[in-house]
Write a structure and sequence with these properties.
seven-stranded parallel β-sheet; two-stranded parallel ribbon; single chain; 8 helices; Rossmann fold; 18% strand; alpha/beta; 235 residues
C-alpha cells in the first residue's frame, strides 16, 4: 500500500486493542485509538476519549482524528464488554449493556466511518468478534449474540459497500491471554487448553497480525477469520 491510511482502533488501552495499535504503529501507520476516562493508549497513538454508546462522542472522536491525522481509512472495531451470568439470572440491564456496546456501538462507529470511506472509494472495516459467537457459551448469551451478529453486519456491509472499494471482515479470536482472562480459575484455563488443537492459548499478537493482513487485503471481504488455534473448526 503506497500511502498507508489512517487507522482507528476502538478500545485501544488494553488487551487485543492495545497490542494491535502498537503493531500498526510499528508497521508505519498513523493510528488513533479510543479510550475511556483514565485509560492510556500506547506511545505513538493519537488518543481520543470516546464512549461508543454515545453517538455525540463518536462524532466528536472522528472530527478530532480527521483534524489531527486525516480521514480514517481502516476501522478496527474492537471495543467490547462482558456481563456474564446464566440466563435465569441475566437482567435486562446485563443484556442491554452488552448489546449497546458490542453491537450497537460498533454500528455507530461504522456508520460514521463509512461516509468518508464511500467518498474516498476506499475502506477497510475489521470487526473483532469471538469464537464464542460461533460456538456459544453458557453464561454468555448476551455476549455470544452480540458477537455472532457482527458476521451478518460485515456481510451486509460487503454487499452494500463492496463496489466502493470498501471491505468488511470479521476476526474471531479464541481464548487469548489478556488482562481479562488472567483472573480465570486455573482449571478453566486448562480445560480450554485441552480443547485447542494448537495446545496453547493465543496471544494478542496473533490477532494483531490478522488485522494487519486484513488492512492490506483488498480482495478479501465478508470473511470470518478465526484466530483460535483450531478451537472453532467447522463453525
Amino acid at each position: 500500500m503506497k500511502d498507508k491510511p489512517v487507522v482507528l482502533i476502538t478500545g485501544a488501552t488494553r488487551g487485543i486493542g492495545r497490542v494491535t495499535a502498537e503493531r500498526f504503529v510499528g508497521a508505519g501507520y498513523r493510528v488513533a485509538g479510543t479510550r475511556r476516562a483514565g485509560g492510556q493508549v500506547p506511545e505513538g497513538v493519537f488518543p481520543v476519549e470516546c464512549d461508543i454508546t454515545e453517538q455525540e462522542q463518536v462524532d466528536a472522536a472522528f472530527t478530532a482524528i480527521e483534524a489531527e491525522l486525516g480521514t480514517v481509512g481502516v476501522l478496527i472495531a474492537n471495543a467490547g464488554v462482558t456481563k456474564d451470568t446464566l440466563l435465569a439470572r441475566m437482567s435486562d440491564d446485563d443484556w442491554d449493556q452488552v448489546i449497546d456496546t458490542n453491537l450497537t456501538g460498533t454500528f455507530r462507529v461504522i456508520r460514521r466511518a463509512a461516509r468518508p470511506m464511500t467518498r474516498a472509494r476506499f475502506g477497510r472495516i475489521i470487526l473483532i468478534s469471538s469464537v464464542v459467537g460461533l460456538l456459544g457459551s453458557p453464561g454468555q448469551i448476551n455476549y455470544a449474540a452480540s458477537k455472532s451478529a457482527l458476521v451478518g453486519m460485515a456481510r451486509s456491509l460487503t454487499r452494500e459497500l463492496g463496489g466502493r472499494g470498501i471491505t468488511a471482515n470479521v476476526i474471531a479470536p479464541g481464548f487469548i491471554e489478556t488482562d481479562m482472562t488472567a483472573g480465570l480459575d486455573e482449571e478453566i484455563v486448562k480445560g480450554y487448553q485441552a480443547r485447542i488443537p494448537a495446545a496453547r492459548l493465543g496471544a494478542a499478537d496473533d490477532v494483531a497480525h490478522a488485522a494487519l493482513f486484513l488492512a492490506e487485503a483488498g480482495y478479501v471481504s465478508g470473511a470470518v477469520l478465526p484466530v483460535d488455534g483450531g478451537l472453532g473448526m467447522g463453525h
